[in-house]
Amino acid sequence: MQTVEQVPVTVLTGFLGAGKTTLLNRILTEHHGRKYAVIVNEFGEQGIDNDLVVDADEEVFEMNNGCICCTVRGDLIRILGGLMKRADQLDAIIVETTGLADPAPVAQTFFVDQDVADRTKLDAIVTVADAVHLNSQLGEHHEAEEQIAFADVVLLNKVDLVDEKGLENVKKRIKKINPYAKIIKTTRCAAPLDEILGLNAFSLKRVLEVEPDFLESDHDHDHDDDVTSVSFVSETPLNMDKFQTWFGNLLQTHGQDILRSKGILNFAEKDERYVFQGVHMLMDASPMGPWPKNAERNSRVVFIGRNLENMGLQEGFEGCKS
Mean pLDDT, to the nearest integer, of 141-163? Predict the structure, then answer.
């Protein structure tokens, strides 16, 4: 019998805002000579992450409006099937999950779907953890705990924002959940790529110890019903001062309930695109270069959190138009 060479797959997971897209961009921009296909999954209807992924040679497949571990899992199988038709042109596949994904059903796909199992090999689950917020996330969201439990490697990111005592506490919490995972402390996900990719680290035996029903095909995953997402688009340019005032006030008053905010903005009288990304009250914004040729200049924002309907988000966003 002729053996088919399996394409290694790395699953990047981690809770909302931990730094998965930052890590993905590092992988795509470093000179490693490898050819990757990238699959990006988002929770909201409006795709933002696909535009935040650098313009690299790699192909990026986007799955929106659903979580990779449940509603769009069929899309994952379909995309993988298409990629396998030209597997000889790929060195590996990277799957970036939504921050609300339980990695178990995603990993399960590579074992219970026969076509996928024959042609791909789950190389490792790499979990990016936010050193600032992980402790509170573990207490409030079972997905965050699952992401740590299934990790082969944990990138403990944003360590520059936490003191040594805080870091030790977070590391102990990770080790208590998953004593097998390798922990790498990073700032802006700056870890050597050979400690992330090509590890051959995923152990089905270990996973079955943690979750004996892992291979059962009815592995359901229920999201926290309190967590929802909303997104807005504006074809009219925004006023920068109005946006900064509104958004600053919003984070001060409701930041605890806003798990994740992100967007690409078209400001009046500015030639560059602006990008912002937030986790609770922390927010980072910067220009991201000129608009691509022939690209539609509009503003798109996404919020993921609790009680979003009580924050006047649409009215606030509409009020930022110039």
Answer: 91
- Residue type at 136 in one-letter notation: S
DSSP state of 84: H
By C-alpha distance, which of 222, 198, 60 is closest to 126?
Answer: 198
Query: Which residues of 167-257 form beta strands (DSSP E)?
Result: 182-185, 227-234
Hey, what are 94's tokens? 């990277």
Q: Which of 255, 287, 254 is nearest to 271 (CA)?
A: 287
Q: Quick check: helix, strand or coil at residue 32?
A: coil
β partners of residue 238 = 267, 321
Domains annotated on the chain, with CATH: 7-210 (3.40.50.300), 229-318 (3.30.1220.10)
SS3 content of the chain, % helix, strand, coil (to 5): 35, 25, 40
pLDDT tens per residue, range 102-150: 887 788 888 878 888 888 999 999 999 999 999 999 988 888 988 998 8
Contact at 8 Å (CB) between 283 and 260?
A: no
Residue 175, classified by CB atoms within 10 Å of its CB into exposed (0-12), middle (13-18) or buried (19+), is: middle
